[in-house]
Amino acid sequence: MRVQRAATPRPSRVRARTTSIAAFVVLAALIPTTASATGPQEVEAELPYICTLPSGQLPATVRISADFPERAESGEAFSPTGVTTTVELPAEAVADLTAREAAEVRAATRLAVGVAQNAATATATWRGSAEPVTLPASGPLTLTTKGDVPSVAGRSDGDLTFTAGDLAIDLALGTTDPADTAAADPGSLTVDCSLAEDAPDQGLLATVPVGTGGPGASGPPSPSGSAEPSGSPEDGQGDRPEERRGDRSPKVLENSPGTAADRDVPPCRYDEQHPPTDVSLNAYVTGYANVKKLKSAAYLPPSCVLIEQGLPVMGPPDPEYLIFDTVSYANFHYQEREQTPPFDATFLSFDFAPVKATMVLKQTGPMRIDSRMKMSLIDFTTITDTYVRAPLVLHVLDLEVNGTPLDVGSGCRTETSLVSEDPDPANFPGDHLVLYGRGEQIIGQPATGYLLLSGGTLSGETTIPAFTGCGTDGENLDRLLTASVSGPGNLIKQVQGQTCAIAAPVFPSPTNEGQCTEDLQPYEIPVAEH
Hints:
By secondary structure, the chain is mostly beta strands. It is 4% helix and 44% strand. The protein has helices at 91-98, 241-245, 478-485; strands at residues 2-4, 16-17, 40-53, 56-69, 81-89, 104-117, 120-129, 133-134, 141-146, 151-153, 160-174, 188-195, 204-208, 251-253, 280-291, 296-308, 313-314, 321-332, 343-349, 353-363, 367-376, 382-390, 392-401, 404-406, 413-414, 433-441, 447-449, 456-464, 467-468, 487-496, 500-501. Strands 2, 15, 16, 17, 18, 21, 22, 26, 27, 28, 30 and 31 form a twelve-stranded antiparallel sheet that branches. Strands 1, 3, 4, 5, 6, 7, 8, 9, 11, 12 and 13 form an eleven-stranded mixed sheet that branches. Strand 19 (343-349) and strand 20 (353-363) form a beta hairpin.
């Protein structure tokens, strides 16, 4: 489905990352969620804004494009994808910047997006960044930023709406020749913009129906995903609407929360049973995996991974490159076990039977991370190829078909690990998942893609084996799960957040992005991408 308020080109998406040295990503759930089976809404909105610049308040045009799901289930987290924010500032803005001796500008945007469901509201911050652009000699200045945005989950049935709000544009100014030390530093500038009063639909970007009850079917969102009836003060629900709503507002899962204590993710820290070393890292991972048989995708919420970073060694000789190889190892970490947290998924089996499953992914051996960095001897550009090999078995803990619980027993799982075609089978035999990512950095520019410390996106394809051990009291459920899910050609896309280096933690500051919380957990919680 396409929602178009103003046509605008959709540039290809680029993910920028800082230089890095170690990281890891793992696979997503392999049973699809209902909302993932539907097509996306492609939203392109053109909105008028008023921006405050040194020369005064000036009109600006902001174009926002993103893909939203057509619908979602109550409590199911999703994030808009392909988010691009294009800001067109008037010629007066260019004059303000050139007056500061600036010749180029690098933009970062922070868009406040109101998320509402029934009577409850929340706010998400959509952040974007861009490469430097040269200031035009005349005419307006166009800045285009891209970036990941927080996940959102509706707490009950009813429409979930997304509305654009205030916009802040952080401008890092520069000269055309960074080597010219005699040139004055033009510094930086933050431009605050507010939505114009005549904005179409008051800035409405998209509406995502949640649940099966239809819009407004069940009152304010609730933490459990079911509607709660309104009550009187004697019922203990409070006598004001905001007291009754409590934490029923749509849940927004930010990318980079500042503290670890109250985050909606499992703890991710080293302890006495798992003491850190000088090369210990930790990170959160999340993502999606397609299930080809069901033409759908599944979501794995953020999971903790503990990583032991290897030392780089000289690779094979090459006349054009300096090559280094690094081998690192990693493990899931959940309640002292090498597994993900349990996660729920709902899907349609054979296109008609609603099935809800609770599952975990368990390791059968260590996860191995092989990285090869190639540095050009001509321009010092570096390319890093990373392969992650993970022996992971999918266990089903609970199963419910059409509302009826089925006892799967305590040993319901895939017969073997998830299986990928390995690019080097002679050196890496056996059943395991393989994920691949590439990172690149040009001297003087931010790195792109996946690099080993700062994370990013990896992808791969896997075969889901047949299930075994499912059922009790003579009831064999192996065939049901195998027929519904098992098979080849299942694409995977995983996102890992910035790692926290335990021996040399980087805490948030006005000059640094946070990598570690005060209690040495990963500062960044990544958001899954379709």
